[in-house]
Amino acid sequence: MRQGWRWFGPYTPVTLEDVRQTGATNIVSSLHRIPIGQAWTELEVRDHQALIETTPPGRTPLTWSVVESIPIPDAVKRRGGAAKVEIEAWIASLEAVAACGIDIICYNFMPVVDWTRTEIDFITPTGATAMRFDHDRFAAFDLFVLKRPSAEKDYSENERIRARESFENTPPEEVAEVARIITSALPGSTTEPLTIEAFREKLAAYSGIDAPQLRQHLIEFLEAVTPAAEARGVKLTLHPDDPPRPLFGLPRVASTQEDYAALFDAVPSPANGMCYCTGSLGVRADNDLPAIARRFASRIHFAHLRATTRERDGLSFQEAAHLEGDVDMVSVLKELVAEDRKRTSKNTIVFRSDHGHRMLDDLNKTVTPGYPAIGRMRGLAELRGILFALGAPPT
């Protein structure tokens, strides 16, 4: 397995020199500056690749191995194969990436909002901080800030009562902060930052689109792009929904083992793969993570390894340290290692320690929310330790 690291570019706090010191050798990155829906050019990809792969004398080489992500425009999620211009632009980006020798592309199909949290610096018992999703705060935003029409029907009476109590007992500045976090798009998001009014308009545009329709649109997208990927040796890896359940009355269709099975059955191309994210999938107690890894082993080309802790209500959760929480990371890695041993050195699984606690000196610095250096380095070291114990040291 290959050690990866998410790098957001030259103007972010964690530098490539920092990455080398973590032990990671494979960079996971994207052209974040290019607007969603605009085709990437080969020149733009090569320029970014040169930043990553031009190695100073005496330094460890780094390789850009995974593109995370080429964002899928909203029009594709709403219209499926009918969004021909947007799909053609996406294929052009794929072709530019493939021309540069990068053969893993991660993407997601979450409508309106990408990965969602309500707190970015929740204080843990150790004094480190973590990302957190508080269901009561989320419902309070939906019901009393966004004031989404018919939102009440998506919450039980008890949930609505707790949401109102949360809203009334939370200082206005904290309510505003929750709204900012949800609407502004977290790091690496593939959706647009939105005002409250724009948020309402985006939601309204999905009126009448249920889970079967959204799944069909995803299938139509895959039917259009997988031939280009397969022809160029590119593996597409679909990231799970985060959290893995409907939000704001919108369906989500990459949340369970059954969701992925339906997509692989519909588009059986070997280019149609998954990004195996233990944190996202692990939020659902009914997702058996080792079983999912075992069933879809040949489809896993990229893995996000992190842990989450489900809270008492079964809906709230927080980011845990990588070997804690509700994810049995040892069992997960046993499955991934078993698959990886079947592969050649050129197509082994790229994994990265996903997210990480903000801790130690990072508490005194500006960091990218969810992506501090020290917490992720701790996670990578712990994952590396498991792999060594399994007799499969990472590369």
TrEMBL record:
Q: What does the record give as the reaction this protein catalyses?
A: D-mannonate = 2-dehydro-3-deoxy-D-gluconate + H2O
Reported cofactor(s) = Fe(2+); Mn(2+)
List the InterPro entries: Man_deHydtase, Xyl_isomerase-like_sf
Record's SUPFAM superfamilies?
Answer: Xylose isomerase-like (SSF51658)
Task: Write down the Gene3D superfamilies for this protein, in alphabetical order.
Answer: Divalent-metal-dependent TIM barrel enzymes
- Known EC number: 4.2.1.8
Source species, domain of life? Bacteria
Q: Does the keyword Hydrolase apply?
A: no
- The enzyme's main class, written as a single word, is lyase
Record Pfam families: UxuA
What this protein is reported to do is described as:
Catalyzes the dehydration of D-mannonate.
In the record, the note on similarity to other proteins reads: Belongs to the mannonate dehydratase family.
Protein name, per record: Mannonate dehydratase
Q: Which organism is it from?
A: Pararhizobium capsulatum DSM 1112
